[in-house]
Amino acid sequence: MEHLGQFIINHWQLWLALIVVLLLTFINELITQKKKAKELTPQAAVDLINHENAVVIDLRDKEAFKQGHIIDAINARGEDFEQQKMDKYKNTPIILIASRAIEAQSLANKIRAQGYQPHVLSGGIAAWTNAELPLVKGK
Question: Most buried of the four, 6, 38, 83, 118, by CB within 10 Å?
């Protein structure tokens, strides 16, 4: 430890480079987090649905959707957001549900650039089920 000060003085360029790299990494992480859609707990999703009339978009396949989905959820695919039929949801908060949150997060990043207000249910449909919230079966 006693030689650390001397090492820093002798190799100040290396220390400066280390600080710059750490600073750039930190800035990149902040930018990435800012671009990421907000992840919601099931309770926060219920609150958004009840108070801001959020639309629930379930991205799972039709069979998984039929086995159980959130009340009034719309079964859609990522490609559907490229068509005009989804434009009516641009002015309302959207909660994206998938089997895994990472799938919904990548779509959320894509559709945010199109003017949507996406949120992602953290933990996907499993988190909703684990919170003992109701599911509709069929349809």
Answer: 118
Residue 115's pLDDT is: 87
Looking at residue 82, its pLDDT comes to 86
d(CA 41, CA 83): 29
pTM: 0.73
pLDDT in tens, 17-72: 999 999 999 998 887 766 667 889 999 999 999 999 999 999 999 999 999 999 99
68 close to 125: Cβ distance less than 8 angstroms: yes
Distances in Å between the Cα of 20 and the Cα atoms of 26, 28, 101 are 10, 12, 33
Nearest to 56 by CA among 119, 138, 14: 119
Place of tokens 């430890």: 1
